[in-house]
Amino acid sequence: MAGRQLASKWRKTKALLSDGRVAGYIPRTMPYSHSTLRSMLGQYGNVVIKPIVGGGGYGVIKVFRDGRGYGFTYMDKTRIYRDFASMTEGLKRVRVKRGYLIQQGISLARIAGRPIDYRVKVVKNGDHWEFRSMVGRLARPGLFVTNLCKGGTMLTCREGLKRSLPRIKLSAKRREMRNLTLICIEVMERHFPGIGELGFDYAVDHSGRIWILEVNTRPQ
Q1: Taking a C-beta distance cutoff of 8 angstroms, is the pair 31, 39 a contact?
Q2: Mean per-residue pLDDT, 17-36
Q3: In whole angstroms, how large is the CA radius of gyration of the chain?
Q4: Domain 9-25+107-216 belongs to what topology?
Q5: Would you list the DSSP string of 144-164?
Q6: For an engineered disulfide with 136, which of 88, 103, 155, 207 has Cβ 3.0 to 4.6 Å away?
Q7: 60: closest CA among 175, 155, 149?
Q8: Bridge-partner residues for 197, per DSSP?
Q9: pTM over 0.85
């Protein structure tokens, strides 16, 4: 069942932020503007900017501020600038021609230096939602995006957690992810009646904390 489609990442994020059980799992996310980018870099040191509409890692850029100045990474290339104004001019040349969101950067757990995140896919079957898959997505060497279409490697959720965070309790972390998914389904259905499938992208940071990066209504 395909069901209703929702392209805007911002609309879906705002829906999840409206529920107190979920809001704490969402990195700070704001519509793109130069002033917001500057302030969020000052607060977090690094952020991810991504098109409000789009998937597969398309147009996603990591922006950072460090001792060298300002910079960004797009695909496998990193550029460094002495000041914020020069960096934003450089961003204009690589950003796709769409509206963007800025999201607080999360320090993903890694396997052999490669970041990993997780996709949980659920589908509505009659009146019930079924879990179809819980998988890890390990970034291709040299990339920060984990998408399989960008060369990422698929692992089982259990294997990804075990290899990236060997000291955490696997069953408890998987259960937390499943329970969070069930709450998010309830919130999404309340805001967007008619949806039939959902794909949740979860980060687990180096301390084991779960974050919701985004939700898709047409998960690949």
Answers
A1: no
A2: 97
A3: 17
A4: D-amino Acid Aminotransferase; Chain A, domain 1 (3.30.470)
A5: S---GGGT-EEEEHHHHHHHH
A6: 155
A7: 149
A8: 123
A9: yes
Cite the residue boundaries of each domain of the chain with CATH code 3.30.1490.
Answer: 29-104
Contact indicator for 109, 204 with CB cutoff of 8 Å: yes
Locate 22 and state its tokens. Answer: 């979920």
The whole-number pLDDT of residue 32 equals 96
Q: CB of 88 within 8 A of CB of 34?
A: yes
Strand partners, 61: 49, 74
Helical H segments across 45-169, by residue range: 84-94, 157-164
- Reading the block at residue 204, the tokens are 């687990």
- Tens of pLDDT along 159-217? 999 999 999 999 999 999 999 999 999 999 999 999 999 999 999 999 999 999 999 98
Residues recorded for the chain: 220
Q: Which of 86, 50, 55 is nearest to 68 (CA)?
A: 86
Map tokens 């009659």 to a residue: 126
- The whole-angstrom separation of Cα 31 and Cα 47 is 12
Kindly give the pairing relationship between strand 46-51 and strand 61-66: antiparallel
CATH code: domain 29-104 is: 3.30.1490
Q: How far apart are CA 52 and CA 61, in angstroms?
A: 13
Q: What is the pLDDT of residues 34-79, one digit of tens each?
A: 999 999 999 999 999 999 998 777 889 999 999 999 999 998 899 9
DSSP code for 50: E
